[in-house]
Give the backbone structure.
Amino acid sequence: MVDYDLREIMKKVNWKHFLLYFFVIAAIYYLTKSFWMSLGIILLLFVVDNFLKEYDKKRAKRKDEKS
């Protein structure tokens, strides 16, 4: 069994992103009034967010290699 240290996990969480995601989720749910529609939109937003983060990492890496 894996023993997780809650304090270490809490340090790794980016609380600004967590609050932003919470407000976006609440706003989408308020606008759609449908749990499943909100869930689909949120999943799409997470996928787009992940692709943008990966693109930014690759761009920064190429920029560092150029310099």
Observations:
- The chain has a mean pLDDT of 88.
- The CA atoms of residues 26 and 55 lie 27 Å apart.
- The chain is about 85% helix and 0% strand.
- The longest helix spans residues 35-66.
